[in-house]
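Why should sequence recovery work at all? Because a backbone constrains its sequence more than one might expect. Tight turns favour small or flexible residues, buried strands favour hydrophobic ones, and helices have their own preferences. The token representation captures these environments compactly. In the example below, the structure is given first.
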């Protein structure tokens, strides 16, 4: 009888261990995705029994990982990146949903003087006066920023004092003093305690990065991945999106 009880106990443990491992949902995204999932994920995990694991880097890097065949269940990338992956059959078209959008802002080290960026002219002067500037090497915000810098005629003047980081560490570099100012999407700035948001870019030169979610065609958990997209669009998801400096998509 004792041996039978032990055997039943071991069988139950294995039965619970197997599904738990299989129930992980792997989400590819950038920092903004991790911020929102960090808010809404615990409740989902408790109610569903599934674990949400968010793997992050610059969205362009995560897109390349998908193209190289790395397995995942759900991706939250910049809209044009997601659309390209849908065309390539790497994301499921009818799962596509714009879930959030973020404006671009300027960061300084917390406690440092806050430069004037209230107008386009003031923003230009702040760039010219800064000792050092950092922004992403590749990112949707950078695609827009480079057009702005060309329009302002400051590309050559800023070249020697600009660092383009390959990771999402713009705000960390500002917080540590490695760069005087950083330019990146606003939620990235808000996520780093040592960095301070001066404000969004002036309206005339502002741009919004839209983040789009879609499911992997190779995921064995497609219904659950779709549920996570719905959760991001739910009142709780919208509340988190706004709390983190963004707007619903």
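From this structural description, the recovered sequence reads:
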């Amino acid at each position: 009888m004792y041996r039978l009880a032990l055997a039943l106990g071991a069988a139950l443990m294995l039965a619970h261990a197997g599904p738990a491992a299989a129930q992980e949902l792997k989400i590819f995204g950038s920092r903004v995705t991790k911020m929102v999932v960090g808010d809404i994920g615990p409740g989902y995990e408790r109610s569903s029994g599934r674990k949400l694991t968010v793997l992050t880097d610059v969205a362009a890097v995560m897109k390349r990982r998908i193209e190289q065949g790395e397995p995942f269940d759900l991706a939250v990338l910049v809209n044009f990146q997601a659309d390209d992956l849908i065309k390539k059959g790497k994301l499921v078209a009818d799962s596509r949903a714009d879930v959030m959008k973020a404006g671009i802002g300027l960061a300084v080290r917390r406690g440092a003087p806050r430069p004037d960026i209230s107008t386009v002219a003031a923003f230009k002067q702040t760039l010219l006066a800064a000792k050092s500037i950092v922004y992403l090497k590749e990112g949707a915000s950078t695609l827009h920023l480079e057009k702005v810098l060309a329009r302002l005629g400051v590309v050559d003047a800023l070249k020697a004092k600009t660092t383009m980081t390959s990771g999402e560490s713009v705000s960390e570099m500002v917080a540590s003093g490695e760069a005087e100012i950083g330019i990146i999407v606003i939620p990235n700035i808000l996520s780093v305690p040592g960095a301070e948001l001066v404000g969004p870019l002036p309206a005339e030169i502002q741009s919004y990065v839209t983040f789009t979610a879609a499911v992997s065609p190779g995921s064995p958990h497609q219904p659950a991945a779709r549920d996570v997209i719905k959760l991001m669009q739910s009142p709780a998801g919208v509340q988190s999106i706004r709390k983190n400096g963004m707007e619903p998509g």
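A few observations help interpret the result. Residues 132 and 159 are 10 Å apart (CA to CA).
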